[in-house]
Amino acid sequence: CTAWTPLLTAQDFPAFTDLKPQTELPNPLVAMSGQKITTKEAWEKSRRPELKQLFQHYMYGKLPAVPEALDVKELCLNRNFLGGKATLRELAVRFTLPRSSSTADMAWSKHTIYVLLVTPNERLSPAPVFIGMNFCGNHAVVESEQIQIPETWVYNRCEGTEKDHATAKGRGTQADVWNVDLIIDRGYSLASFYSGDIDPDTADFADGLNGELKPDLKFAGDDAGTIACWSWGYHRVIDALTKHAKEVAKGNSRLDLKKIAVVGHSRNGKTALLAAAMDDRIALAIPSQAGCGGTAPSRGTVGESVKRINTSFPHWFCDEFTNFNDEPARLPFDQNCLAAICAPRPVLFANAQEDTWANPDGQLEVLKAAAPAYALYGKRGIDSDAKAEMGKLIGHELGYFIRPGKHSMSRVDWQAYLDFADKHFSAN
Ligand code: GCU
Description:
The protein is of the alpha/beta class.
């Protein structure tokens, strides 16, 4: 066998027109060179890094650099949350960024990520942590006057929004989405942060992290799209929890940072899966109803298409991705390869029956086509003849769940997430 070197610079990536169309989901174990990967070593040394680069180059854009410095300040502490069952904190996380894209010189960013952290008081061993990016602000996730209201842009559809900004009327309005009481009762912690703290979900590049990274606002090629910036946000929350873990351990709670699960719904689910693929500190991923650009095949013919998503949300992916609008078959990967990068870590695709926009059936095929990477680790992944069963978790390290109903994240979903996490975290 010849040694294989991963692609490194933009010049090494074939132009869109030189990529050969493939109608089937590409095999994660066949490298760009055509070489077949048969061992864990070859996968980890060459094909896995290659896939990480391909996804960043052709689809999401390059994730921003890891900050040189990160500062965590505790803004509030309530050890008597949920009738004494939990401790509530909010952290303010600040970080450095390169002063401009052409220099390595770092400066403190204008942005602050606020992290809501709820930990169980009654658990004796360290608690696994769910990290979830939220849609409406931390103040909406739990009922508490202590939590900050975001000052940045928020979605109009979030309750209590006035003139694109959150108000106190939104407090606790997403409590039934996040089900913090259930998470705590099951012995887990939750760290949640608002996507807009990183990059507001608008086509305006100037209003978020990207505006700071590229003050000239010239976005092209594989410059990071919003989903790449958001997934980088998940990574910074891990940095912050790692930094703050000693402080947390002074109280009743301890965090088990070897058991970090990421969760996100829909666009935030696309983000959670990318975050897991790009950072091995994440032990388990649960993208909920993530669909196109996340868990559904880009080559799929059901629900949202690549062209449609790039048209409706021009800021989510990098410019390169628009080349594939009419020919997704030229993508040198599909979303099965993103799940494959996560191997051998458990990944659950959660779905809702009426959410055909997110192509639930196509997602099951994506999982099956990710399984060969899990097999390299002796893991079962998901069986090739697995069939969806309404309301029931199926699969192994690659799990699939579908329940009746519409596009949303609910208590029933959380029960399935927690069952999946219990199954895999207790096995290790
Ligand atoms: C739209 C979009 C989806 C996305 C969803 C959401 O429906 O087309 O790609 O997942 O919004 O984030 O709720």
